[in-house]
């Protein structure tokens, strides 16, 4: 039996063409950028604390562009449209600032939310575009933090230290600190009772002018309280020390310090010293500040006492704190730098002992400072022992009063064997003379702490 292939009629051909056209059209719609199917991105923080003063920033993103958005404030009783816009020109990246609703001054809404609706410029969804909706929980907080100064040292000298005891309280507290001239921050450490804090602060020697010291507290809704810390200031007479450099010192000492610090050594003698004394010095000081900031003991303090620090036994002071050193090469002044500690010279490799208990938080080579040890004594106070030839302690060791920790030496950028002794307040090198004075410690530090306790107890 013979089978013949049935010929397609005109309707079959038309149907086939339509099918192909529909298939191609569907493919075009599915794969074309104009019909992209990705929903817009709504970028904001999670739970938002709102003081009903500052705007809330929300970022919108979409590959085909944003054409419409709406922001609604809801509190379970009312709905308020805060933002709504049909864009005349679509934007792929759009930042909007949502202004707060106008509410009663005593408003205390709970379970409030922001509902954000965004539609993109895609032709998908029957030309309606892709829609994204995000609901963000809002915590209304219009109260500023409590931030009061309880007691503090009455005086502070340029390059010197002071102590401040404060009360800071807020249900949604984000941060609190002491600010010096709005440039340098000092941490608060929990003290004596809940909501009370203590901070050792410093007037950095390189801050010539004293502007203001503030206690600053900020909550999660960005409510801020600024309270002035009352201080009488004392100027410090700056001694200038002119130092003549030799090419031999620069090539043998400054260049060696750079090499041991894994820094590139310039070819020019002058540049060697400048890089060592300026750039490397800045890095060394930054390392000191970062080390103390990272490892200082921030735990709760109930009581605090500190002995006056003793000078190196049998030593002579060869350089003081706060000297402004001017460096000359071949009769030309090429640089300046602060000397931030006291230099004591005794016999070579003299034993170095500590005057207070503490924890070793740094033990290593530190550029210009040479082999250096830093010991944390609590409440943000630390001591630094530089240019040592050998060390008797390891990183993390607990040391006790009168314990030997090292021997003096000539490591780093030095002319000879000596000890550079520094005192640090939250990483800032301050005048050691204050901390070597038993009466100063009593009047400026421990008496203030005792007075603050009485005030906290209501006595």
Helix-strand category: alpha+beta
Q: State the CATH class of the largest domain.
A: Mainly Beta
Main beta-sheet annotation: 8 strands, antiparallel
Q: Can you give the mean pLDDT?
A: 91
The second-level CATH architecture of the largest domain is Distorted Sandwich
The gyration radius over C-alpha positions equals: 34 Å
Tell me the number of strands: 30
First-last Cα distance: 121 Å
Share of β-strand residues: 35-45%
CATH level-4 homologous superfamily of the largest domain: Glucose Permease (Domain IIA)
Q: What general outline do the C-alpha atoms trace? A: extended
The proportion of residues forming helix, as a percent range, comes to 10-25%
CATH topology of the largest domain: Glucose Permease (Domain IIA)
What do you see in this structure?
With 459 residues, the protein is α+β, with helices and mostly antiparallel strands. It has 5 helices and 30 strands. Strands 18, 21, 23, 24, 25, 27, 29 and 30 form an 8-stranded antiparallel sheet that branches. Strands 1, 2, 3, 4, 5 and 6 form a 6-stranded mixed sheet that branches. Helix 2 packs across helix 3.
Which SSEs are present, and which pair or pack?
Layout: H1 10-31, E1 41-43, E2 48-50, E3 56-74, E4 79-98, E5 112-120, E6 131-140, E7 146-152, E8 155-157, E9 161-169, E10 173-180, E11 184-187, E12 189-190, E13 196-202, E14 213-219, E15 224-228, E16 232-234, E17 240-245, H2 247-260, H3 269-295, E18 316-319, E19 323-329, E20 332-339, E21 342-345, E22 351-353, E23 358-365, E24 371-376, E25 381-386, E26 390-391, E27 398-399, E28 404-407, E29 419-425, E30 428-430, H4 432-435, H5 438-456
Parallel strand pairs: 2-6, 8-16, 17-19
Antiparallel strand pairs: 1-3, 3-4, 3-5, 5-6, 7-9, 9-13, 10-11, 10-14, 12-13, 14-15, 18-21, 19-20, 21-29, 22-28, 23-24, 23-27, 24-25, 25-29, 26-28, 29-30
Helix pairs in contact: 2-3
